[in-house]
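retry 2 of 3: previous attempt timed out while embedding coenzyme a persulfide. Reduced batch size to 1 and resubmitted. Inputs unchanged:
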Amino acid sequence: MDYFLTEEQTMIRDLARQIAEEKIVPVREELDEKEEFPWEIMKVLAQSDLFGLFIPEEYGGLGKGCLELCIAVEELSRACLGVSTSYAANALGTFPILLFGSEDQKRRYLPDIAAGKRLVAFGLTEAGAGSDAAGIQTTARLEGNEYMLNGTKQWITNGGEAEIYTIIAISDRAKGPRGASALVVEKGTPGFHFGKKERKMGIRASVTRELIFDNCRVPKENIIGKEGYGFIVAMRTLDSSRTGVGAQGVGVAQGAFDEAVKFARQRVQFGHPIISFQAVQHMLADMATEIEAARSLVYSVARYIDGGARDVSKESAIAKVFATDVGMRVTTNAVQVMGGSGYMREYPVEKMMRDAKILQIYEGTNQIQRNVIGQALIKEAAKKK
Ligand code: COS
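retry 2 succeeded.
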């Protein structure tokens, strides 16, 4: 379907697609097997200016929006979700600075991020605070001109590889969610260490580590927004990034669908290619329908965000939940169409199905997304009364 992309958006799509096909597809299996961070590909993305897509021109970026970011993420996800996660998590970590950072922080960090010189990670989740994000225990206590950071962040994408970390911590426990603050912490700050690298079901090219803060002193000027703004910073960040997770769902679904069609045309059973059987055609038809519906939704929400909509919690949750459920269903059905071959590691759909599962879990589980949508519906209904 033609989404009437502008000439620039089409160029971004073609560029990301070319990188995906030429640089990612040939190495994705090896990256997955070795659980290796894709530094070489990150360098290519940096040289192609893709890290600067969503960063304003005044800070060295291309000044594009959510739609362009979604298009790039979708294309990379078509080839490898592990690589696209490393790329998209960089945007997730940057949003706090972009949305709430001071002019000084933007000048200090955004040009390097746009150039792909320094990678970013977002640190909210802890062992006891996943869905219950307000339950974080990491503390940031103001002592003179510094915040003293103590605690451990868990399952942080790009942990260890990134140079810049946007961390949510409690600065005043008595105030509940309003007592959280967001801080920029740089790699190398004394008292900031990395814990174990996690071994995952999928997205193995991306790295997931613990961040450990042990009396880590962070300059007071590294606070993002104001003290007490941390929870809002985190929630607004997730509102901005969840559409991109939806784009990952569209991309991985498209990648798996393409493989299933190619296979179904070649695989002969009962004397005919299996694509000639109605049972297989119907599965492919459902997959194609779902992918197009998910893409339409993700692009529409991205355009809504780029159009300047203020509160996008509900819409970004809708895009995330639908498109990532499609990602899981389509990759699973691609394995089904390909039967025993689909289950074997010599075909990429086995990895795509393993990879897709995380999309229903990270950046807020799909159950939490439904809570967010439900809460928004209650608020809207109350306003109408
Ligand atoms: N934008 C701005 N403010 C928001 C917000 C948003 N999207 N969502 C919530 N808030 C505000 C609320 O208005 C409330 O403020 P007040 O106390 O001033 O009214 C405060 O934040 C707490 O909100 P709420 O009571 O809804 O919080 P809960 O403890 O019930 O937690 C959240 C609900 C939103 C945290 C949960 O639904 C959620 O999204 N969890 C998933 C977290 C996540 O994505 N984890 C992945 C980590 S990063 S990969």
